[in-house]
Amino acid sequence: MSEFKDWYYSVPYFTRYWLTFTIVLSIIGRFGLINYHYFVLDLHAFIYQFEIWRPITALFFYPIGPGTGFHFLINCYFLYNYSQRLETGMFAGKPADYFYMLLFNWFLCVVIGLLVNLPILMDPMVLSVLYVWCQLNKDVIVSFWFGTRFKAMYLPWVLLAFNLVLSGGGMMELIGILIGHVAFFLLFKYPQEFGGPALLTPPAFLKRIFPDTRYVGGFGTAPQARVPTRPGGTVFGGHNWGRGHTLGGN
């Protein structure tokens, strides 16, 4: 039990509670402790019945069942793996900046979800975070199923194609890629390569709630205007989905 507790509290703050709320709310819905219909995003209930919690619960809830359980576990793995890498990497020592990016991605998920009648937001939200990490670590080699290896920049598109072939879906992955691209562009490309203002700078009150801490290292390198960037990433062993390592590793 102490080992689990040590592991749990070693997970970065926002990743820890995002994963925790996702698992808890999904289990509550799975066993009917609360009717899961109250968790999903519904335009009529949100606007006309003033059920204002739905955009939040729709982020954390996922309908676990015989046909969705494996996909839920994969989503949890991606959430834990790539959110943790971003939070301890490019956003290390800047918790308010990471939280503000998550809020921005979540807001876009909610807006698009209401427009296209998307009741569950876990897929696009996780893909948006994964996309940002992949863009910051384009040249890192990741391993996928069946021993396939390719650059991280292609991973979101491989996941899109994979779900398109297996389940005939892909729309939620496409939305996640779009949201991730907008976040990456506003965070890094626009201010650093095009000289625009930093549009996703967190407000002062968030900085007061989550003050910057000492930088402790990280993954990836943000793009810089006319300055060569160092290759991102680090060496990882194993062959799990999306687990990256640099060329010459493993």
From TrEMBL:
UniProt key word Endoplasmic reticulum: yes
Subcellular location as annotated: Endoplasmic reticulum membrane
Keyword list, A-Z: Endoplasmic reticulum, Membrane, Transmembrane, Transmembrane helix
Superkingdom of the organism of origin: Eukaryota
Membrane topology: Multi-pass membrane protein
Record has Transmembrane as a keyword: yes
Name this protein carries in UniProt: Derlin
A cellular component term, taken from the record's GO annotations: endoplasmic reticulum membrane
Transmembrane segments: 17-38, 59-80, 100-118, 125-146, 158-188
Any Pfam family hit: DER1
PANTHER family: DER1-LIKE PROTEIN, DERLIN
Protein task: May be involved in the degradation of misfolded endoplasmic reticulum (ER) luminal proteins.
Family of this protein: Belongs to the derlin family.
InterPro entries: DER1, Rhomboid-like_sf
GO biological process: response to stress
The organism of origin for this protein: Parnassius mnemosyne
